[in-house]
Amino acid sequence: MEMEHENIPESKCFQCYNAIKEYLEKVQENDCKLYGKSDIMNMYGCESNKALKILKLLFQMGKGIKVGKEYFVTKQNHDEFLKTFQGKEVII
């Protein structure tokens, strides 16, 4: 059974759907860079567990994205995080 998107009311859920769709289009156009666990492992030179903790921290701070069981952070949000905590100790 196929549903038409035109019949969906303008709701919070539909707004979220549009935001995610627009964001994914930007990622596909390579306007945005998403860092995942392996990227964090490479950047920080750490193991999988610590990379996951870093991504979870970013998610809890409202800087990260969770899709299913995976965590991601945009390059912009990661850079903001580094700028915010520059010269400070972050305990993970």
Provide the descriptors you would attach to this structure in a database record.
3-stranded antiparallel β-sheet; mainly alpha; 4 helices; 92 residues
Topology:
Blueprint: H1 12-28, E1 34-35, H2 37-44, H3 48-60, E2 64-67, E3 70-74, H4 75-84
Helix pairs in contact: 2-3
What does the model show?
The structure is a single chain. This protein has 92 residues and is mainly alpha-helical. The chain has 4 helices and 3 strands, in the order αβααββα. The protein has a 3-stranded antiparallel sheet with strand order 1-3-2. Strand 2 and strand 3 (70-74) form a beta hairpin. Helix 2 (37-44) packs across helix 3. It is elongated and about 45 Å long. The model has no long low-confidence stretch (mean pLDDT 84).
Brief summary of the model shown:
The chain is built from four helices and three strands. By secondary structure, it is mostly helical.
Order of secondary-structure elements: HEHHEEH
Largest sheet: 3 strands, antiparallel
Approximate helicity band: 40-55%
Q: Return Rg in Å.
A: 16 Å
Number of helices: 4
Mean pLDDT figure: 84
> Taking strands numbered 1, 2, ... along the chain, how are they ordered across the largest sheet?
1-3-2
Low-confidence stretches: none
- End-to-end separation in angstroms reads 47 Å
Count all strands and give the number: 3
Strand content: 5-15%
SS content category: mainly alpha
**Shape type:** elongated
